[in-house]
Amino acid sequence: MLKYDFQNAVAIITGAASGLGWAIAKKLSGQNARVALLDKNTGELIKRKEQLDGENEIYTIDITSEEAIQRVIPEIVDRFGTIDILINSAGITGKTNIKSHDTETANLRQVFEVNFMGSFLMSKHVLPVLLKNRYGRILHIASIAGKEGNAGMIAYSASKAAVIAMAKVQGKEYAETGITVNALAPAVIQTALVEAMPEEQVKYMTDKIPMKRCGTLEEFADIAAFIVSKENSFSTGFTFDLSGGRATY
């Protein structure tokens, strides 16, 4: 098992009650990080807390609310003493398998609010803590859809493209501060979110992967852990690939 030095590191993970966020939470907790798990689903968060052995705390929050974020970040600092890592994993696909002219504007706005604005607001209010410490790791979870665009998924694809652009901007802005900001663009990872999508949409995406399979949560968590580790000190503003050969740039 890949191991990194997360001893005493404090990591905030959004969308931590399920899917990619939970996979990362388990990985970092298992490598001695202290973890703040954030999600809207209180019931699932309580279950997750019981499944972790290390030091952790749960916070019910809607990351589209700046006021809620402004309240919770000081609570986390009070609880753990600092923040070292932020992983923005919360995300939604919105309605899929729909062409642009049939896309509901309200649905597109909702997807952007969660996927882009949520990640932006979390980083906006965590960055002052990281700047004070002259150290930090931020990882925005993007998607291969943000690089290439998936037909029938304009809201999701465009929002994840915005997340990738944000990582590029923030990586440059904080490059001399000890803080790295990167993105991770997975192809299809086997999660409940993917299982809930229309079968034809999943087939469309999987058929584009040269390996002809979905990625696993373990593969995802391994690369995410590396990106936010101390050992990954010279990569910033970069979008890491996890696409089974689909993206080669």
How would you characterize the overall build of this protein?
The protein has one domain: NAD(P)-binding Rossmann-like Domain (Rossmann fold, 3-Layer(aba) Sandwich), CATH 3.40.50. The protein starts with 9 loop residues before the first strand and ends in a 7-residue tail after the last strand. It has a seven-stranded parallel beta sheet with strand order 3-2-1-4-5-6-7, with helices on both faces. Helix 1 (19-30) packs across helix 9 and helix 3 (66-80) packs parallel to helix 4 (105-133). It has nine helices and seven strands; from the N terminus they run βαβαβαβαβααβαααβ. Strand 2 (34-39), helix 2 (42-51) and strand 3 (56-60) form a beta-alpha-beta unit. The longest helix is centred in the middle third of the chain and has 29 residues, at 105-133. The model has no long low-confidence stretch (mean pLDDT 94). With 249 residues, it is an alpha/beta fold. It is globular, with a radius of gyration of 17 Å.
